[in-house]
């Protein structure tokens, strides 16, 4: 875990925590429902879904987002669950884009229904999209996601690029005994299409609690595998608040007919090289609970006060207090680490 210095100053100003970090990026999970059942994320039978009454309404999402923007949040990412199953997504994007000052708006999606929605979303004000894709093999896709939707995802990616949501980021989780060997193909494919691939380390947020530090594929292992396959990767000098370590890809495998491979690769090594010291993220769950970390054990309930008629100032105070309580680091690897009750899909990845 990175060392984090405790500052003398109490949390003050906009959304500063006691370690001197400022929260400016909000991830909103619109729903815990998902159209896929990725084996490393969710059981085949799904989870105990939230009821409609438990989930925030669009008016509630917009009201809370406005308070966060007032407090200095400059970017909002919509996620889930699967945000494209949210029936009024483009209308919600339009309303969020009208906030002052306008936040940057992006979406993380499995891409299954993106071909039908990309244009509407771009027109509504969406600026960027991250699509999750772990394999280029149709059969493996069906095994990994328990759904035969590979072609839909590829169609969704193409539609997003056509709609101007470009360059898009592609997120891949590599699992041993499954898709690990596909890392070079995934990178070649992404570079050829001008997409920005990011490999994400598997984190202990799975519903089945099968994650293990010994079994997970590490960033180092992925980089070794790619270099061994013939990629020349040069680390970018800085990464700021971005979770991904960026690498310039300056050459590809020699046997490839591919002439001038250029582009970049991101690696999100949340487990082995945590970036907690620079974390600027907050997460709002679909049922209105604010989390200052993916791995937090505590949540701040914003839904109950919101529904009880709290003013914007009262909501802002609750948000400030939650940020002030943000822990130094996620603590994976510590002897007392306990996996949070909610899974990745229920928090909003
Ligand atoms: C939970 S999904 C939610 C958004 C959308 N349904 C999607 O597929 O992008 C967001 C991302 O989290 C990743 N993910 C899910 N469980 C994970 C875990 N335990 N560790 C790391 N990444 C995970 C998925 O692969 C996906 O890229």
From TrEMBL:
Residues given in the record as [4Fe-4S] cluster 1 binding sites: 34, 38, 41
Cofactor binding annotation: Binds 2 [4Fe-4S] clusters. Binds 1 [4Fe-4S] cluster coordinated with 3 cysteines and an exchangeable S-adenosyl-L-methionine and 1 [4Fe-4S] cluster coordinated with 3 cysteines and the GTP-derived substrate.
Key words of the record: 4Fe-4S, GTP-binding, Iron, Iron-sulfur, Lyase, Metal-binding, Molybdenum cofactor biosynthesis, Nucleotide-binding, S-adenosyl-L-methionine
Cofactor(s) essential for the protein: [4Fe-4S] cluster
Catalytic activity: GTP + AH2 + S-adenosyl-L-methionine = (8S)-3',8-cyclo-7,8-dihydroguanosine 5'-triphosphate + 5'-deoxyadenosine + L-methionine + A + H(+)
Keyword field contains Iron-sulfur: yes
Any one GO molecular function term: S-adenosyl-L-methionine binding
Amino acids binding GTP: 27, 77, 108, 169, 281-283
CDD domains from the UniProt entry: Radical_SAM, Twitch_MoaA
EC number: 4.1.99.22
Domain Radical SAM core span(s) in chain numbering: 18-232
GO aspect biological process, one term: Mo-molybdopterin cofactor biosynthetic process
Listed SMART domains: Elp3
Binding, S-adenosyl-L-methionine: 40, 81, 132, 203
Binding site for [4Fe-4S] cluster 2: 276, 279, 293
Metabolic or biological pathway: Cofactor biosynthesis; molybdopterin biosynthesis
Function: Catalyzes the cyclization of GTP to (8S)-3',8-cyclo-7,8-dihydroguanosine 5'-triphosphate.
Family of the protein in this entry: Belongs to the radical SAM superfamily. MoaA family.
Subunit organization: Monomer and homodimer.
Protein name in UniProt: GTP 3',8-cyclase
Native source species: Jatrophihabitans endophyticus
